[in-house]
Task: structure prediction
Amino acid sequence: MKNFFEKIAKIDRRIVYLLIFLGVTIPLITKKGFKFEPLQEVKKAYDFIESLPEGSVILISIDYDAASMPELQPLLEVVLRHLFSNNLKVLMMGHWPLGLPLGQIALEKIAKEMNKKYGYDYVFLGYRPGVAAVILNMGKEIRTVFNTDYKGTPIDSLEMMRGIHNYSDIALLIGFEAGATGDFWVQFGQARFGLKIILTSTAVITPDLYPYYQAGQIVGLIGGLRGAADYEILVKRKGFAYSGMTAQTIIHIIIIILILLGNIGYFALRRLK
Amino acid sequence: MIDLIFTFIAAGLTLAIFSFLYKDNPFYKIAEHIYVGSAAAFWFLYLWFFDIDPKIIAPFRSLYKEHGFLKMFSHLSPEHWILLIPITLSVFMLLRFIPPTAWISRWSIAFLVGMAAGLGITGALQGYIIPQTEATLLPIYTGNLFTSFNNLIIVIATISTLIYFFFSREQRGIIGIFAKVGITFIMIAFGASFGYTVMARVSLLIGRIHFLLFEWLSFLFS
Result:
């Protein structure tokens, strides 16, 4: 008996890796999905976007990089598709230089797919350093921070940008967050200028963003792969996030079982001693 | 063809990083060094093309082209003079690398600390402390049982957590009871945070395995 408890208290890490690998691979190959209802905070984000009139300008901030790509990139594509299909205009920028090419790739891919034209339906501003200073100055005049787009084209020569000067010309900010930049958007963009914000985030930082949602400082929150899957359900286009949620659920069950086994082994051994 | 090459490079680097699960090895080290090197180069290029060149060099370049090096100084506009302030502070910061003049960099650091403190304090007060305090002042009875219960939890959790961090009196009696309730809520918050972290890491693994299965292997067998 002691031998059994010793084994479950110290399961070989290679067995754990194998279980996790199988737990991810099998659901992805079989493509079996669970049924679940979208979370309220995701539904509110979706409803807010649906309520915007055609031609409204949406500012997207790319505040993540390749390390968070599996969580945020599929969602970025789904959100862009939703915005373009509602004939909303997209203005993209970012505070994370390493993530900007990811934003650019998604924007150009979806714009091409939806027959949208650069300078008329969307503009890619690029990056400027100094997160708080950038957010504050954009609240007064975007041109003080971005006088050109990412290619160096003066933004006044772009049709879409002619009437856009500050946050009063922007209907919504959607921040794709993998760090603390979302806090800056809320603390400076929302608190000082009344900017409407939806935050989409990696699961790691989602618990830190819930207080903003609870306090009504942001209109919606799309957190982690679960949030992305919810959004895919709402836009009726199930993709990577939805299929990934099955693997996610199975892995969570495996982890819970492993935690229970480890604890049973630990306490049983302590009692036997 | 290009897609094929990049897919194979990405798959190779992914497998090299995963090989660390077995033990540290040269493939992992190569992948790690490629990441660090390319990220550093990328940062440098971005800072140069999106910040230093357009914001600092370009305004003077046009003057230099028009008037030449010596005459350009007599044509500086107020915007150019203002630009000289951050340029000077930047140069001061670089003086850290020369030991006899390293102390001058403290002026730049003092400027940064002062600016960050000013921004941080006003941002935290206006955008966090005041709205979050407002959001905690909730009615206990709302007419809806579920909402009332949620509000009650928020109020009790906030008060008991604040009491846990109240160290001016010994945590005994009623203060001790509230402190214990507070630490329970803190532990629940840590648990929720850890759960989300597990979810995030698993999501990354799902993303990589999805790439290996449906992009790399499908390329390989198509």
Summary: The mean pLDDT of chain A is 92. The CA atoms of residues 27 and 108 of chain A lie 31 Å apart. Chain A is about 55% helix and 10% strand. Chain A touches chain B through 56 residues (CB under 8 Å).
